[in-house]
């Protein structure tokens, strides 16, 4: 039996009952206790799986090996992500049995897919790998840019590209009519700038400074938003009247506006003032269509 099989078996035990013993693993695979010890050390110090190294500790009361709460949370989050990936792809892949059982109980439905040309996709991927610029036709306009990353956001594929004017823009893969690799070498090297953009809100990347936006949600919207994470550094506050106040720092508010509009009359923009005015005008225009 390979180490991968033994490691996956240990992960199954941790996911299903929260602990394992070296003896049960050794007997299951017919290996020595020392071998299981080495497997445990691998999970603790050299683990290449997505959850990283685990903090495995000895529980004296139960005489078992378990993991810290922080490690368990990382392991469980990884298991959920891998189960969803297996459902989306339709392929089980090389995963622990506990994860595969989860995937078989999930029905995945995409709310809005946007098909795109496979040739365009592979052209963009190849340009990124080869560090080349591409010439593309996007919304009937031709341009040359430097693809940096492909992003799957809400089941819609985008890519971010460094343009000749020095700006980084986001493009929908489905709107690219044609793309070809040029002989021009890529020139973008400011990875810190790219990392900063990736941490911004939503799919629209921006070099502008972030501002604080404050939105109050009522009724069903409050109950929905209070358990959501729009951005990692957001601040959520439940008010005495049951409403929820969301504070979020955003550079580009394009997507934020459309998301707030989804909640209709149960969302109120508090700040900033210019964004509040745009929100009011958008609501007014929608109402006028039905007058």
UniProtKB/TrEMBL annotation:
<protein>
    <submittedName>
        <fullName>WYL domain-containing protein</fullName>
    </submittedName>
</protein>
<feature type="domain" description="WCX">
    <location>
        <begin position="213"/>
        <end position="287"/>
    </location>
</feature>
<feature type="domain" description="WYL">
    <location>
        <begin position="123"/>
        <end position="180"/>
    </location>
</feature>
<dbReference type="InterPro" id="IPR057727">
    <property type="entry name" value="WCX_dom"/>
</dbReference>
<dbReference type="InterPro" id="IPR026881">
    <property type="entry name" value="WYL_dom"/>
</dbReference>
<dbReference type="Pfam" id="PF13280">
    <property type="entry name" value="WYL"/>
</dbReference>
<dbReference type="Pfam" id="PF25583">
    <property type="entry name" value="WCX"/>
</dbReference>
<dbReference type="InterPro" id="IPR051534">
    <property type="entry name" value="CBASS_pafABC_assoc_protein"/>
</dbReference>
